[in-house]
Specification:
It is built from 16 helices and 14 strands. The protein is an alpha/beta fold and 331 residues long. A 5-stranded mixed sheet has the order 7-6-8-5-9. Strand 1, helix 2 and strand 2 form a beta-alpha-beta unit. The radius of gyration is 22 Å and the shape is globular.
Length: 331
């Protein structure tokens, strides 16, 4: 090889290496049952970002119970963004100075590009005839649910049951009694949504799994169609899926612009479409209408209606010594 050709080859290699080195990597810290959604969303966003900016990027994921991920970020996990399933987990990070105090105003819809709700998964054919929350407190029914101390999935399941009792006219004392009966039927608490699904389907424990609506598609994909039936209760809760930029990480890595673009794209038509295909309820009225057969109508109530806010619910129900600790002893 001539010295001129060698110089060109070395220059090409150096340029390629600099391109690799400059390709930014984004880490999304997210809740358990969103992994399939973000797998598809990340591919779409990477393509969109390349098309609009000409830049190559990489997106990595870290999944677990929503609260467990929030604690990991607080303990040093360098997530650029968090995509959670409860606002309290983002509030926790805001309290630690890791995300903006006014994070909920940084993006539309209370910084929640999608919502979900809680429903029941029962074994094929619904052998126990489970139709509504009242069926979950019957003797001999085993309920699998996430620990509300470790995952938003579990908190929403608990609040949905409490809210159901309240909407049916129960006092707080009666609602506590109702939820207490339900948790007496819980043989094991899952650490996160995916763990609870594994307990239900792989370990074959329980008659019913309380989980997010979006988990139905994941179960059918992973375990095969026909293993479970989805049962929509008469009343359930609106579960917002909040997102935020982790200021500590983006300031250190110089990824603030990329992180914002990543979360903004969740609100795009394509982002909303991908969410709907994964049974996450889109904020876009047009996309929601298009997927009307996916999202069954049911009576929904918000956290604010029954509990004031998720922060209030956290203090009353889930903090150490709160209502949950009074009704459930971890087995």
């Amino acid at each position: 090889m001539t010295s001129q050709k060698l110089k060109i080859a070395l220059a090409t290699l150096a340029f390629a290496a600099s391109g690799i080195a400059s390709a930014q990597t984004l880490l999304n810290g997210s809740y358990d049952v969103a992994r399939e959604f973000y797998k598809d969303y990340n591919a779409a966003f990477i393509a969109h970002y390349k098309k609009t900016t000409g830049k190559d990027i990489k997106v990595d994921q870290s999944h677990g119970g929503s609260s467990a991920i929030a604690r990991s970020v607080a303990d040093g996990l360098d997530a650029d963004v968090v995509t959670m399933n409860t606002t309290t987990d983002v509030d926790f990070l805001a309290g630690a100075g890791l995300v903006a105090k006014d994070w909920a105003k940084k993006f539309p819809g209370n910084a929640s590009p999608t919502t979900s709700t809680m429903l029941f998964l029962v074994r094929n054919g619904n052998p126990k005839g489970i139709k509504d929350w009242d069926d979950l407190i019957k003797p001999g029914i085993q309920v699998v649910v996430v620990n509300p101390k470790t995952g938003g999935n579990g908190r929403y399941a608990y609040l949905a049951a409490w809210g159901y009792a309240k909407k049916k006219g129960a006092t707080d004392v009666q609602a506590a009694e109702f939820v207490s009966k339900l948790y007496k039927n819980v043989p094991v608490l899952g650490k996160g949504g995916r763990d609870a699904t594994t307990v239900f389907l792989q370990r074959n424990i329980g008659d019913v799994l309380i989980t997010f609506e979006s988990e139905v598609l994941s179960v059918n994909k992973e375990f095969g169609e026909g293993k479970v039936d989805a049962i929509y209760p008469s009343i359930s809760i609106v579960a917002e899926n909040p997102v935020a930029v982790v200021e500590r990480t983006v300031n250190k890595k110089g990824t603030a612009e990329l992180a914002k673009a990543y979360l903004d794209y969740l609100y795009s038509d394509e982002g909303q479409e991908i969410a709907a295909r994964h049974a996450l309820r889109p904020r876009s009225p047009a996309v929601l209408k298009k997927y009307a057969t996916t999202f069954k109508p049911l009576q929904l109530f918000t956290v604010q209606e029954v509990f004031g806010s998720l922060g209030e619910a956290q203090k009353v129900h889930f903090n150490d010594g709160g209502q949950f600790d009074k009704i459930y002893t971890v087995k």
